[in-house]
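Let us work through a complete example step by step.
Step 1: write down the sequence.
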Amino acid sequence: MRQKPDQFPGDELSSETADSEYYVLGGGHVGVFVARRLQADGHTVSLVDPSHSPSEIPVLRGDPADIRTLNKAGVSDASAVIVATSNDGRKLLIAQLICTHFDVPRIIVLVSVPHRLDLVAEAGHEPICATTALSEALVDSV
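Step 2: predict the structure and record it as tokens.
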């Protein structure tokens, strides 16, 4: 899935119904920003991260690659899961774990390295490349 240059990861989720329930796995800057944007659009959002401090977004502190943590978080109720941890290999591992253990209709993986988009797509997940979106937006603005 290629996004428009003015589109930030998470924008395409905003058009879904307000009663959608999202889980963002990974509490780094991008994960937290996406969670806040979804919440501002009226969606129910939960963040799963081992170290993120609770804020306005409900947080379950735990490893998003641990099946027990995902069960405790209630990921099986998700409309979509956004995997936003820091390492692309770990992101793919987590996406596969969710795919095999939970009936989640959409698994979106925020890919850092553009040449890994095809790998994530071939695994059956929706890749969004933050690097590509940011670089295209920057080039378009100069």
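Step 3: interpret the result. The first strand starts at residue 21 and ends at 25.
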